[in-house]
Amino acid sequence: EADIYQTPRYLVIGTGKKITLECSQTMGHDKMYWYQQDPGMELHLIHYSYGVNSTEKGDLSSESTVSRIRTEHFPLTLESARPSHTSQYLCASSAARTNTGELFFGEGSRLTVL
Amino acid sequence: GQSLEQPSEVTAVEGAIVQINCTYQTSGFYGLSWYQQHDGGAPTFLSYNALDGLEETGRFSSFLSRSDSYGYLLLQELQMKDSASYFCVLQTGANNLFFGTGTRLTVIP
């Protein structure tokens, strides 16, 4: 079982609200990622981090921001949520020296913006 | 850029063998991996092929042919719990995993 946790699992909010999706891992992994996945669709990378104080944007443009102040914590923030942000957000981590592309995923945060 | 193609849906009978194919286009990559995702769940890593050939892990095997730009996931002795979506994934960089659109496998009694 992977030790990576996301909260909240489900969130319904109104347009314009600020939200933060939390992600924590206890495996000591340096690399962490945020993916966005619509139902039945592929995963798209929106942010990643090599380690503390490192953050990069992924392939899919996103209005969200991330921070990496501690190794184990990689929160994602939406300053002003819109209905187009409705999706599932998956956090993942990997060991820095992995050569298999193995990511450990959290259970996801399913966001609905009304 | 990259592209991955895999069938959107596959149905197979419990106890049978099923093969999920994946063809890709890319200018270069480190390897091809496979992930399983149950409805509402987290994707979980199944296998990785860096070199051509077959990798076996229990009931699951994965194959890669770089010359044919092709890979597949083979599931043997299918069980009902194998019903899930399966993604082939290109590793094109240290932090770059490109996911296919996924194949939804339904196992029927």
Q: Which percent band covers the strand fraction of chain A?
A: 35-45%
The percent range for helix content of chain B is under 10%
SSE class of chain B? mainly beta
For this entry, what is the oligomeric state of its chains? Answer: heterodimer
Quote the beta fraction of chain B. Answer: over 45%
Order of helices and strands of chain A: EEEEEEEEEEE
Mean residue pLDDT of chain B: 93
Count of individual beta strands of chain B: 11
What labels would you give this structure?
heterodimer, A: 114 residues, mainly beta, 7-stranded mixed β-sheet, 4-stranded antiparallel β-sheet, 0% helix, B: 109 residues, 6-stranded mixed β-sheet, 5-stranded antiparallel β-sheet, 11 strands, globular
Question: Can you tell me about this structure?
Answer:
The complex is a heterodimer of chains A (114) and B (109). Chain A is an all-beta fold. Chain A has no helices and eleven strands. The model of chain A has no long low-confidence stretch (mean pLDDT 91). Chain B is mainly beta and 109 residues long. In chain B, strands 2, 4, 5, 9, 10 and 11 form a six-stranded mixed β-sheet that branches. Chain B has a five-stranded antiparallel β-sheet with strand order 1-3-8-7-6, with no helix packed on it. Chain B is globular, with a radius of gyration of 13 Å. The chains are: A mainly beta (114), B mainly beta (109). The A-B interface holds A 2, 31, 33, 40-45, 48, 50, 56, 59, 90, 99-108 and B 30-31, 33, 40-45, 48, 50, 85, 87, 89, 91, 95-102, 104.
